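Honest question from a wet-lab person: if I give you the sequences of every part of a complex, can you actually get the arrangement of the whole thing, not just the pieces? Trying it with mine:
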Amino acid sequence: SQASAGESQAGASESVESEADPWSLLLPVDGTDSSGLLPPLFKVLSDRRGETPKLQPDSRALYYMKKLYKTYATKEGVPKPSRSHLYNTVRLFSPCAQQKQAPSNQATGPLPMADLLFNLDRVTAMEHLLKSVLLYTLNNSAASSSTVTCVCDLMVKEPMASSRALPRAPYSFTLKKHRWIEIDVTSLLQPLVASSERSIHMSVNFTCTKDQAPEDGVFNVPLSVPPSLILYLNDTSTQAYHSWQSLQSNWRPSQHPGQANVAARSMKEEAAATVERSPRHRR
Amino acid sequence: GQKAIRSEAKGPPLTASFNLSEYFKQFLFPQNECELHDFRLSFSQLKWDNWIVAPHRYNPRYCKGDCPRAVRHRYGSPVHTMVQNIIYEKLDPSVPRPSCVPGKYSPLSVLTIEPDGSIAYKEYEDMIATRCTCR
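Yes, you can. This is the full assembly:
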């Protein structure tokens, strides 16, 4: 079968090489609409027909997402059964244009008040938000072993100015161990994403102190700003993989528990009856 | 069978082993039996490697081969498959034999760069055949 697979592979690659544009392989010869012919992934990519991404993502963001991919899937792209999460989509957004930076002064802590604008157009209506975090990358100059406690104030400015700050749960982390700092902003973004808001303007303010020497006042956390925004989503469309469904399909649920039990009981009674009837079995 | 053996006895002396191996051949599974085959596709072949960060290659696999007559337990085929087999063999050969098709799939996880520069990890349903069946 390897030989036959090799043949089919060689055959296909010849036909692919022979065609200047591989799209002719995928698109229907009569030029009709290909949506019914192509699987969703191929449809999405064939719409981009050989272009190259105009905007390249930030290298640190790409590194983070590659690590996430390796955690969730094998080299062949098969989701690992060990994964226990319900989200089947993760989107990482870099801020569009960093808005004007409020001057950093003692009051706003070591980090300048960062104004961030995220455009979430790529989030589809079928994708429901389960969790979202702001992801900060620590500069490698942060390799000090000090433990730092930070308080993060986050305010959403648009679409509606809600000066609701995050519950000021102090985030404490040891700089040496962390390459990334994740600030959970789910409670703040949930209503916005649910209301199909796709442009989010927020400001973030970090105030950190060293645990060993709080008298030193605020500590200059070497964060490489701006942060990325990561959304963990559950895509409810039919094209997406729903792990809980595959769990259910392995486990055959009875129509109604009562009904199933009745069936089981009657089968048991039936079996007992046949045993009684045939003398041989009785021995 | 006695008559047959006696009548054969008059013919050229056939070695018992030859008859037996011929006889048992009919019970062997067909050489090109229905099973899963690989087909490794690289996204650079389709010029999608600009957009797809991972995986680099995609092996959707496919099912190919003849369905043996005893499909019940080996392929988990429904009873209908055997009915169709009997119809093909005994009643009407224009009815096709059971076909070798995928019976189970697994999803595919893809990491892509979006046109706006954002990065997306998505899991697409039923993109890899993992088991064949005869139907």
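Two things worth pointing out. Residues 44 and 81 of chain B are 40 Å apart (CA to CA). The mean pLDDT of chain B is 83.
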